[in-house]
Amino acid sequence: MENRDYKEINLDNEIGQVYDDDVWVASYPKAVAQFLNKEMNDEQVQLLCKHLSFESMKSNPGVNLEDYIERMRKFKLIVKDGAFFRTGTVGKYKEELSAETITKLNEWIKKNVSGTELETEDIFQV
Questions:
Q1: Which of 40, 57, 58, 86 could potentially form a cystine with 44 if both were Cys, beta carbons 3.0 to 4.6 Å apart?
Q2: Longest C-alpha distance within the chain, in Å?
Q3: Could you tell me the keywords of this UniProt record (predicted)?
Q4: What is the dihedral of CA 64, 85, 82, 68, to 10 degrees?
């Protein structure tokens, strides 16, 4: 397969989005409906937006990996309390990780996205 920008890949049976802000939540339901050749009224869009909200996802056992994390704790593979969905606050890691760890993460990101189509994405700007 040729190396192409992930934004240019157009597969008939796949749709992808970056979940990074409220703009996504407002636009994604309509994009999915269009992709599926379906129509959604405003009430359906609002309902889906509520379902896709951070708080809803965080409390949904179908996506929050709660059972998996509990099994990991049971076998002592996770020693701290925590959850797959944490706070939903952008940049919260800066309050929770040491400066040394953040530097190591930034160096890893620079090394591993350099020269790829991800290099220009805002999420990877360090």
A1: 40
A2: 49
A3: Transferase
A4: 20
Which ranges of the chain have pLDDT less than 50? Answer: 1-6, 9
Q: Which residue has the tokens 């409220």?
A: 22
The CA distance from 77 to 102, in Å, is 23
Residues 58 and 89: their CA atoms lie apart, in Å, by: 13
Q: Give me the pLDDT at residue 1, please.
A: 37
> Tokens for 30?
């309509």
Average pLDDT of the chain is 78
Residue 126 to residue 113: CA distance in whole angstroms: 11
CA 25 to chain CA centroid, nearest Å: 12
Residue 3 lies in a domain: no
What is the span of the domain harbouring residue 100?
89-126
- If DSSP codes are grouped into helix, strand and coil, which group holds residue 3? coil
- The pTM for the full model equals 0.56
DSSP string over 40-108: --HHHHHHHHHHTSHHHHHT-TTTS-HHHHHHHHHTTS--S---SS----TTTHHHHS-HHHHHHHHHH
**How many domains would you assign to the chain?**
1
